[in-house]
Write a structure and sequence with these properties.
The complex is a heterodimer of chains A (about 120) and B (about 525).
Chain A lengths: L5 H18 L3 H21 L22 H31 L16
Chain B lengths: L2 H16 L6 H24 L3 E4 L10 E4 L1 H20 L8 H19 L3 H19 L5 H32 L4 H7 L10 H15 L7 H6 L6 H26 L6 H20 L4 H20 L4 H32 L10 H4 L1 H15 L5 H11 L4 H22 L19 H19 L1 H9 L8 H23 L6 H5 L6 H22 L1
Antiparallel strand pairs in B: 1-2
Helix pairs in contact in B: 1-2, 1-4, 2-3, 3-4, 3-10, 3-13, 3-18, 4-5, 4-10, 5-6, 6-8, 6-22, 7-10, 8-10, 8-22, 10-12, 10-13, 11-12, 11-17, 12-13, 12-17, 13-15, 13-16, 13-18, 15-17, 15-18, 16-18, 17-20, 18-19
Family (chain A): Belongs to the CPA3 antiporters (TC 2.A.63) subunit C family.
Organism (chain A): Alkalibacterium pelagium
Keywords (chain A): Cell membrane, Membrane, Transmembrane, Transmembrane helix
Chain lengths: ~120, ~525
């Protein structure tokens, strides 16, 4: 099972999320697919350039190679941004639903949403 | 000290919120003027000395988050500060200029400037993501149903687009070990095979094509830029400036990948298709803002043509077209805002006699139209001339003339609002717009003429590129232009007024899922194309 690495799973998750975005008409599912896609990216980042047996770059221990700290640092930022974006997306959706009762992407911008 | 340009407007926005009980407008204008003079100073510094670098937190080059002002980015920053000063002066007496609006608008300015200055890929991602949020909120500023729907589409499409960029950055970091663009372009030569950077390139180009709104990824743009209830300054900044961040990043990214991947032909073709598609869609619109939004699609296509033609003069012509497009498109959007506020409708068939009702705005619209269609002595003509000078292939010349004819045709339609008889009843007319905004629109219009008459001079000052424009050939093009106006009027009266097929084509819209599907399709297309070419 060597091919199940973090990178491969990350890429798979990214495209699963993309599939959800392409096919699902519900706005909530769009937001969920977006989160799945982002988790795929996070997983990809934190496993790139990882070698077995390396240690976190903390303290003065020199017996093993250090892990590259940059991807993890980037991902902390990206996760925070991801949370913010999800929150804003949900806020927009809730506002839209409560005011206009629409939960689906409509076909035409001049029509109201479908009747589900 | 380049970071002052980024952090200055954001701090000003926060101060503006802290003192929201008082009138902060003079303070904001003051900050804008300081901002403009600092950008000008940096512009002069870059011209006289050399490229300015700013390494954050004292880390050495290559590892630090870097801000860089070179010939191109200093022009873009200067343009940003000029346009924002104009926009804020325009909005000075408008009712939507409140604390929240000023805060968001100033933050947007800081973000746009940092997109132009930063060379760090991850930094660019963060800025793109935050600017997407800010722009989405600005689009739905009036909380109308249509505006919220448009804002949501804009928001989700762009967030997903930036996720592609983030993934591409990760793959590039895995291969090269750098995040700084200049370091990557040095390291990328060492990559053993171009195939290794094929996927990151395809991911990144998908995002940039979305941001520059080329075919088939443009369908979010008219929704976002032409939102009915968004304040005119927001539409003007989005169409005039914000779209240029995509163009700028396209320039930077293709330069970064140039040693291993060249994609000029394919993006040249995409630019052509985008431009033609843009004017066909624009012809059938009746909403004054939608015409301008589709016109942006068409002009961005023209810029992509110039950038990817592979000749120096066309490249600089395209960069000058970025500047001229920023001027005339923001003028036209502001003027359109004034006009529809006066007439109470956005349907151009209902508006007549603008020139008599609001002369200053009317003249600004005339200047804008002459600029965008490339009339002699206006700035559009200089850039379009330079782009067409880049190639002598008959098919390219034919295509460029076709695009210009299309542009003229839908602007004949647009210009029909200027003349005719005003049918509104006398008592239904709202009070006149405030004088400051009227004057501002007119001054913006004047800038179009000014940068056109002094075209070669402004070209030399802005980009340091000498070009001989006013030759016999230039005036030949003037005659061609006059003929095209006649043809455009003919086509407008003969074909477009009838509606029919064109009307139906131009109201085709993609659903949200279709937009994402076309984005995926575009990614697969670029990846597949590169796989076969390399």
């Amino acid at each position: 099972m060597d091919f199940i690495t973090g990178e491969i799973v990350g890429i798979l998750l990214f495209f699963i999320g993309l599939y959800g975005l392409m096919t699902k008409k519900t706005i909530v599912k769009t937001i969920m697919s977006m989160s799945i896609m982002e988790s795929g990216i996070f997983l990809f980042y934190i496993t790139i350039n990882y070698t077995d047996g390396s240690v976190p770059p903390i303290g003065q221990a020199q017996e093993a190679a250090f892990v590259d700290p940059v991807p993890s640092a980037l991902m902390i930022t990206a996760i925070v941004i991801g949370i913010g974006v999800t929150a804003i997306g949900l806020t927009m959706f809730m506002h839209y639903k409560q005011k206009h009762g629409i939960t689906h992407w409509s076909r035409n911008r001049n029509q109201t949403g479908s009747e589900h | 000290m380049l970071y002052l340009l980024v952090i200055g407007p954001i701090l000003a926005g926060i101060v503006n919120i802290l003192f929201k009980k008082r009138d902060t407008r003079p303070f904001i204008i003051g900050v804008q003027i300081a901002q403009l003079s600092y950008a000008l100073w940096i512009f002069v510094q870059v011209r006289t000395n050399d490229t300015i670098f700013n390494f954050m937190s004292g880390v050495p080059d290559g590892l630090a988050i870097t801000l860089m002002a070179d010939i191109i980015s200093s022009v873009f920053v200067l343009l940003t500060t000029i346009i924002f000063l104009m926009m804020l002066l325009f909005a000075y007496h408008k009712e939507y200029f409140n604390t929240q609006f000023a805060f968001l608008f100033l933050v947007l300015q800081g973000l746009i400037i940092s997109l132009f200055l930063s060379t760090d890929l991850f930094n660019l991602f963060v800025m793109l993501e935050v600017s997407t949020v800010v722009v989405a909120i600005l689009i739905m500023f009036n909380k109308e149903k249509q505006a919220i729907y448009d804002g949501m589409i804009y928001f989700f499409v762009n967030v997903i687009g930036t996720a592609f960029l983030l993934f591409g950055i990760g793959m590039l970091y895995r291969t090269t070990g750098f995040l700084d663009m200049r370091a990557i372009s040095e390291a990328i030569v060492e990559v053993e095979s171009p195939r290794a950077v094929l996927l990151p390139f395809a991911f990144m180009m998908t995002t940039l094509s979305l941001k520059t709104a080329v075919v088939p990824l443009f369908s979010w743009l008219p929704k976002a830029h032409g939102t009915p209830s968004a304040p005119p300054v927001v539409s003007a900044v989005l169409s005039g400036l914000f779209i240029k961040t995509g163009v700028y990043m396209f320039i930077r990214f293709s330069a970064m990948f140039e040693p291993v991947i060249q994609v000029q032909e394919i993006f040249f073709l995409i630019g052509f298709i985008t431009s033609i598609f843009g004017f066909i869609m624009a012809m059938g619109q009746n909403d004054i803002k939608m015409i301008l939004a589709y016109s942006t699609v068409s002009q961005i296509g023209l810029i992509m043509i110039g950038l990817n033609m592979g000749s120096e003069i066309a490249y600089w012509g395209a960069l000058f077209h970025v500047v001229s497009h920023a001027l005339f498109k923001s003028t036209l959007f502001l003027a359109a805002g004034q006009v529809y506020h006066q007439y109470g409708t956005r349907d151009i068939r209902m508006m007549r006699g603008v020139l008599r009702a609001m002369p200053l705005t009317g003249f600004a619209i005339i200047f804008g139209i002459l600029g965008v269609t490339g009339a002699p002595l206006f700035n559009g003509s200089i850039s379009k001339y330079m782009i067409s000078y880049g190639s002598y292939r008959p098919i390219v010349q034919f295509g460029l003339n076709l695009i210009n004819l299309g542009t003229i045709t839908y602007f004949v339609k647009f210009g029909s609002i200027l003349f005719g008889k005003d049918n509104r009843a006398e008592e239904s007319k709202p009070p006149r717009e405030d004088l400051l905004s009227e004057l501002l629109v007119f001054i913006m219009g004047g800038l179009i003429l000014l940068t056109g008459v002094y075209g070669p001079v402004s070209m030399d000052i802005l980009f340091g590129y000498q070009v001989e424009v006013f030759s016999a050939e230039y005036f030949e093009k003037g005659i061609v232009y006059a003929l095209m106006i006649l043809a455009g009027v003919g086509i407008y009266n003969g074909i477009i007024k009838q509606g029919g097929l064109l009307d139906r084509i131009s109201h085709v819209e993609l659903t949200f899922n279709a937009v994402i599907t076309s984005m995926t399709g575009f990614f697969l297309f670029i990846a597949g194309y590169l796989y076969f070419v390399l």
